[in-house]
Amino acid sequence: MNIHEYQAREILRAHGVPVPPGEVATTPEEAERIAAGYGGMVVVKAQVHAGGRGKAGGVKLADDAADAREKADAILGLEIKGLTVEKVLVAPAEDIATEAYLGIVMDRGSQSDVIMVSSEGGIDIEEVAATHPEAIRKLAVDARYGLLPHQASALAYALYSDAKLARQAARIISQLYEAYRAAGCTLAEINPLISTPAGEVKAIDAKMNIDDNALFRLPNVEAMRDEAAEDPAERKAREAGLSYIQLDGDVGCCVNGAGLAMATMDLVKYYGGEPANFLDIGGSSNPDKVVTAFEIMTSDTKVKSILFNIFGGITRCDDVANGIVEATRRIVVELPIAIRLTGTNEELAVDILKENGFEAMTDMDEVVKRAVAMAAGTSS
Amino acid sequence: MSIFIDGNTSLVVQGITGRDGSFHTRQMIEYGTKVVAGVTPGKGGQVFDESVPVFDTVAEAVEKTGASASAIYVPAAFASSAIFEAADAGVDLIVCITEGVPVGDMMTALPYVREKGARLIGPNCPGLIAPGIGKIGILPGQIVTPGPVGIVSRSGTLTYEVIFQLTRHGIGQSTCIGIGGDPLIGTDFVDCLRAFEEDPSTGAVAMIGEIGGTDEQVAAEFVRDHMSKPVVGFIAGQTAPPGRRMGHAGAIISGSEGTAAEKMSAFRECDIAVAERPADLVGLIESRL
Fold first, then answer.
1. Which of B105, B112, B135, B157 to mutate to test the interface with A (most CBs of A within 10 A)?
2. Which residues in chain A have their CB less than 8 angstroms from residue B153's CB?
């Protein structure tokens, strides 16, 4: 799950990280009011679940409250990587002496959380990583012991030679790690971590990605989910325990298992079609899940045919067959359907489908070819 | 022969009385796996299906039955605890089927398992099957047949698909293993490839990857540098859309976006034949055996 910058700032503040004030506005007028309250220059930042905001024009400095209103007007409604900006964060502009990078990421390679710091922070940090990676210092944390004080200190001194700044940075690095673990993060980033001319170290930006699997025991974090920032169909799928991502094609794909779902989409493309979606109904499927899957696929008006590819293991083919029958009873499905079922309780499933006028296939390539032909209108 | 399990493997099932645990215990027994014990805290003393004694703890199960391997079918919230318990009890092999385990839990469980000298497969995996010998996990027994092909995969059902197609064409398998789709797993591609290279019954290997991470790239280099047996590959997710990535840390740490195209070219550079579709694996394997 992604959370917004302003939410990540709240989590950091709760762990003691010095984060300057900031408030969220959904209208230009609100942004103006907030800016007037701070007085002076403010920064207006798009709150959207996508990176590259600055380069997309989603972060602007404003001279005063009136200017903040104009800048908010320009940013609200902006589209960044396909997502519409609904909220902006308005925060006082800080005096910046230096910009550093501080990030923690769950690293599959080393099977640990890796803390990364660089004194060359800012929006070009990936450029730094590519051209002179030695400017980025990394530390793999042993989660059993957590981040040890001397480790945090060593990272901090890699950022600042001034002991006063380094001591503040060491505390922030430790606090960020605590926040990262406590909020079930797979990524937490402060970019930039600034020092001010007055010698203070502060976080003026924050990003966090949360492990979906940890949310069941983190109700406070789950409450930060911004449903308005989610695609409605994807939300409906999530709530039903399905995994769905809408694409631009016309062959609706319903598959059990993420790997097989992706391979099915790839095969649709291979045979000249375009997948309309990724949809994994998961294991232990019950007929209700299949009904929801149907509703989601048919709500996409681009879809011209529906493809089921089920390899029963934990998933029982008869459950899926019952779901297909049930769905076509509850909702009118005018689209052609191509079904492939193999594995656990396959014979039962084939009988159920036959009794209800459906044909079931057993070969993956054949069913994909058929669904592609159906979408193209060259088969019925 | 086979990798990681053999005819002597004796199994304790953690979560044996649960819905998934009981169903798959019966399937494993039917396939010939020696299931010697089950564990459900509070149900010690019961006997599962009139044949398998149930204990309150894994330690007791191991002590009384000598179980050498464990299969975990407990809910996600308790999965890492079950892994710790199995490692502590001294089993050699732990297969965790459970999906949805918080990645932060695995951060501490993985080094613990390693220190105890156990091998963990998974979590979020279908387990493994040695055709004609036994299985641990949920891989359907009816689709496999004994033969020379080792299969290692990050997927569940896509693995079944590949096995099914090979079997239909009369090509059998030595061991099929699903290592799991989670970011943190106990046994990776390289561990399996190394075992297949050493396994006399394996003549060729099919490696099935997915988008995300760089495990396939690392595995490809291992194949180039350390394997004499032919390896063929498939990567799922060629049509997956690029994610709306937040933050820079992921790209900084791996220097990779983990796309199918990147992985397929890494395979080709390391002399691993790449199948465009799962069905093409059959021909690629056949011509290399």
1. B157
2. 259
Q: Contacts of residue B276 in chain A, CB cutoff 8 Å?
A: 270
CB contact under 8 A, B244 and A51: yes
What the block records as the tokens of A37 is 């309250």
User: Of B284, B240, B244, nearest to A268 (Cα)?
Assistant: B240
- Count of C-beta atoms within a 10 Å radius of residue B213: 20
Neighbouring CB atoms inside 10 A of A99's CB total 19
Q: Report the distance separating Cα B177 and Cα B152, nearest Å.
A: 5
Name the residues of A annotated as catalytic.
101, 189
Query: CA-CA distances (angstroms) from residue B39 to B48, B51, B69, B86, B100?
Result: 10, 14, 13, 10, 21
* Complex-level ipTM: 0.93
- HSE (side-chain half, CA atoms, 13 Å) at B136: 35
Q: Does B139 touch chain A (CB under 8 A)?
A: yes
pLDDT tens, position by position, A209-224: 999 999 999 999 999 9
> Model confidence over A331-359: pLDDT tens digits?
888 899 999 999 888 999 999 999 999 99
CATH class for the region spanning B127-240+247-286: alpha beta
Whole-model pTM: value is 0.93
CATH number of B10-121: 3.40.50.720
User: How far apart are alpha carbons B207 and B193 in whole angstroms?
Assistant: 9
Domains in chain B: boundaries: 10-121, 127-240+247-286
Would you say A101 and A192 are in contact if contact means Cβ atoms under 8 Å apart? Answer: yes
Domains observed in chain A? 21-92 (3.30.1490.20), 98-222 (3.30.470.20), 231-376 (3.40.50.261)
Assess whether the region B10-121 and the region B127-240+247-286 belong to the same CATH fold.
Answer: yes
